[in-house]
UniProtKB/TrEMBL annotation:
It comes from Citrus clementina. GO terms for molecular function: phytoene dehydrogenase activity. GO terms for biological process: carotenoid biosynthetic process. Gene3D superfamilies: FAD/NAD(P)-binding domain. The lineage of its organism: Eukaryota, Viridiplantae, Streptophyta, Embryophyta, Tracheophyta. This is Amine oxidase domain-containing protein.
C-alpha cells in the first residue's frame, strides 16, 4: 500500500484496523517528510500491535457487567411495556437493547437516515467521509466496553496507545501531544503526561489547575456535585486559570462530553470525567 500526502506538517500518525480481545490489531503510523521532490513522497509505515488492556477484572467493569446481566436474568414481565425511544444515537440504541433484554418492546424513532448519533459518519457532497470525532472510547468506560462484548463486536475495535493529540489553534498545522506512559499506573501516567507537555499548558497554569483540583480530590463526590452551578469557564476563572487553557484544551473535552462549549457545560461533568480517568 502506498500513501502520499501534500502537506506542510512534518509528521502524521494515522491508525486503522480492527481489534479482537486477543492482541491482533494493527496501528498504521505514517511519517511524511516535507520538502520532497515532485512525484516522490518518502513515507515510513510502521505497524504496531497494542493488546487489549486488562480491564475485565476491574471493579468498574464487573459492576457494569453485573448491572447489564440483571436485565437478562430478571423475571419476565407479565405485561411487557411498549416504550418509545426518541433518537437512535448510542444512548437510544443501547436503551432499546436493554429494554428488549428485560422482556419489553421498544420502538426506536430516528428522524435521519443514519443511526448512531454522534458516533455516526457522513459523506459530504464531494464524497468525502467525515465524523464528529467520538469514535474513541477509553478503557475507563466500563458500560460501553461491556455493551460491545455483549453485542459480539469487540473484533471491530482497535486498541491504540494512550495519547491525546490536540490541534493547536494559534499554530495552524501543528499538533501537541499528551502521552500517557504504559509503564505507570493511573493517575501517575496522567500526571506525567501533563507535566511533560509544555506547549498546551505552561508551568504556572499547571500549578493553578492542580491547586484547583485538590478540593475535588479531597472533597470527593460532595465537592463534584457542588460544582454543578458553575460552567467550565467560570470554574477555571475562579481558580485563576487563563481563558486560553479553556479555549485550547478544555473545549475539546466539553465538546466530546456534551457537544457544547465550556461557557455552557457544567464543571460537574468535567470533574466526573477526570475522576474516572484518574481511577
Amino acid at each position: 500500500m502506498s500513501l502520499c500526502f501534500s502537506v506542510s506538517e512534518s509528521a502524521f500518525n494515522l491508525r486503522y484496523g480492527f481489534r479482537d480481545s486477543e492482541p491482533m490489531g494493527q496501528s498504521l503510523k505514517i511519517r511524511v517528510k516535507t520538502g520532497t521532490r515532485k512525484g516522490f513522497c518518502p513515507s515510513k509505515v510502521v505497524c504496531v500491535d497494542y493488546p487489549r488492556p486488562d480491564i475485565d477484572n476491574t471493579s468498574n467493569f464487573l459492576e457494569a457487567a453485573y448491572l447489564s446481566s440483571s436485565f437478562r436474568t430478571s423475571p419476565r414481565p407479565s405485561k411487557p411495556l411498549k416504550v418509545v425511544i426518541a433518537g437512535a444515537g448510542l444512548a437510544g440504541l443501547s436503551t432499546a437493547k436493554y429494554l428488549a433484554d428485560a422482556g419489553h418492546k421498544p420502538l426506536l424513532l430516528e428522524a435521519r437516515d443514519v443511526l448512531g448519533g454522534k458516533v455516526a459518519a457522513w459523506k459530504d457532497g464531494d464524497g468525502n467521509w467525515y465524523e464528529t470525532g467520538l469514535h474513541i472510547f477509553f478503557g475507563a468506560y466500563p458500560n460501553i466496553q461491556n455493551l460491545f462484548g455483549e453485542l459480539g463486536i469487540n473484533d471491530r475495535l482497535q486498541w491504540k496507545e494512550h495519547s491525546m493529540i490536540f490541534a493547536m489553534p494559534n499554530k495552524p498545522g501543528e499538533f501537541s501531544r499528551f502521552d500517557f506512559p504504559e509503564v505507570l499506573p493511573a493517575p501517575l501516567n496522567g500526571i506525567l503526561a501533563i507535566l511533560r507537555n509544555n506547549e498546551m499548558l505552561t508551568w504556572p497554569e499547571k500549578v493553578k489547575f492542580a491547586i484547583g483540583l485538590l478540593p475535588a480530590i479531597i472533597g470527593g463526590q460532595a465537592y463534584v456535585e457542588a460544582q454543578d452551578g458553575l460552567t467550565v469557564q467560570e470554574w477555571m476563572r475562579k481558580q485563576g486559570v487563563p481563558d486560553r487553557v479553556t479555549t485550547e484544551v478544555f473545549i475539546a473535552m466539553s465538546k466530546a462530553l456534551n457537544f457544547i462549549n465550556p461557557d455552557e457545560l457544567s464543571m460537574q461533568c468535567i470533574l466526573i470525567a477526570l475522576n474516572r480517568f484518574l481511577q
